[in-house]
Amino acid sequence: MKTMILDCVDEEYANAAKYVDWPAIAKKLKEYPGLINTSRESGYTVLHHVAHAGLPVKVAQFLVELGAWRSVMNYKDEKPIDVAIRRRHKHLIEVLKPKLYYQIPPQDLLKIQLVFTEFIKKLCPDETKILQLGVLFETKLPQANIFLPKCGGTVKINFVSVNPPFDYVVNGFPCLRVYPNVNDKYNVYHIYTSGYEKAKIIPSPFTD
């Protein structure tokens, strides 16, 4: 699993994405595929920029196959498909439709997102980009490895026991499992809708 970088740490790539310089984008992603979902303050990922510019379907499809998230939102709460619709690029609508393998009650996802954000901010106060947890459901295994550039660490994340019908509980509660490798290297946390706690038994990453 490649490590994803959410915050803009490569200005060359960010500029290539902004101006949809496709040769430069492709070259950079070949070297550093973890940059694919990077964005600046606007929240525009490369897939948002492709949707805005109306590039060919094959470009968007290539990015999706490389791991570009279709359900990630920018600062206007727009997914790439919303940008394509707003810009009237009808040829991109089908390829940009998010495909979600799992569903979670929106109120539960929002609560877990808020607790997760609080957790990351406590772990790394200067971090500006927080993973939007809903994007995890674009993969059959809802998990990710995220680099935190402000504190030079990583955090592995997965929803626990996600199998249809959606069973994502620990002790009867919806649960996100987090493996920080920053200052709490040897601790594992369970994040619920109501808060978080250290796991009593440290499980291996991504074994569910």
Automatic annotation (TrEMBL):
It comes from the Bacteria. This is Uncharacterized protein. The lineage of its organism: Bacteria, Pseudomonadati, Pseudomonadota, Gammaproteobacteria, sulfur-oxidizing symbionts.
